[in-house]
Specification:
heterodimer; A: mainly beta; six-stranded mixed β-sheet; 12 strands; 50% strand; globular; B: mainly beta; seven-stranded mixed β-sheet; four-stranded antiparallel β-sheet
Chain lengths: 115, 111
């Protein structure tokens, strides 16, 4: 079945460091891919998305490119800030294969940015 | 303000005492869903609803019930809660399945 695998955390970086959080997926068909962010004590918020191969999603300085050949959707940011400290979830939508509309989430990666 | 509102945000209860977690959205979304979040397991879908009076099971429906009598509301019902249902619960909604707006979460502890 469909699944999402994220790199394990926690990831600890200094402010202004480069961030990469790896995400790979297994899916039939052509799923849409998402990154969600969860700040402490809050619900998940959509950070960015990509709906087809080679699409690049971007928002708030974060980017991720839908790579069908490597089944990956790695999240990157050139210069992280303390305010980026949160849990990041990679997800795929199975709308194409099973039509349940379910989002399948990775385990989440905790990012801590130190001043 | 567009939002998904869940209540209660925090609840401690005892085994077997029926409880309901309410969820309401003000965005006129057709699709609504419940997830539970557990450490190391990410988020798993409990139930979802494509529209009023249309609900279906997700990956972990055992021990839960839902109803969708109105478009804006999608309550989650635990008829006889057990300790393994201690978790953080999220309600979410969207126009289209996939791009979800989440509530702030309801942390449930079953003793």
């Amino acid at each position: 079945g469909n699944s999402v695998t994220q790199m394990e955390g926690p990831v600890t970086l200094s402010e202004e460091a480069f961030l990469t959080i790896n995400c790979t997926y297994t899916a039939t068909g052509y799923p849409s891919l998402f990154w969600y962010v969860q700040y402490p004590g809050e619900g998940l918020q959509l950070l960015l998305k990509a709906t087809k191969a080679d699409d690049k999603g971007s928002n708030k300085g974060f980017e991720a490119t839908y790579r069908k050949e490597t089944t990956s959707f790695h999240l990157e940011k050139g210069s992280v800030q303390v305010s980026d400290s949160a849990v990041y979830f990679c997800a795929l939508s199975d709308l194409g294969s099973s039509n349940t509309g379910k989002l399948i989430f990775g385990q989440g990666t905790t990012l801590q940015v130190k001043p | 303000e567009a939002q998904v509102t869940q209540n209660p945000r925090y609840l401690i209860t005892v085994t077997g005492k029926k409880l309901t977690v309410t969820c309401s959205q003000n965005m006129n979304h057709e699709y609504m869903s419940w997830y539970r979040q557990d450490p190391g397991l990410g988020l798993r879908q409990i139930y979802y609803s494509m529209n009023v009076e249309v609900t279906d099971k997700g990956d972990v429906p055992e021990g839960y019930k839902v109803s969708r009598k109105e478009k804006r509301n999608f309550p989650l019902i635990l008829e006889s809660p057990s300790p393994n249902q201690t978790s953080l619960y999220f309600c979410a909604s969207s126009f289209f399945p996939g791009e979800l707006f989440f509530g702030e979460g309801s942390r449930l502890t079953v003793l």
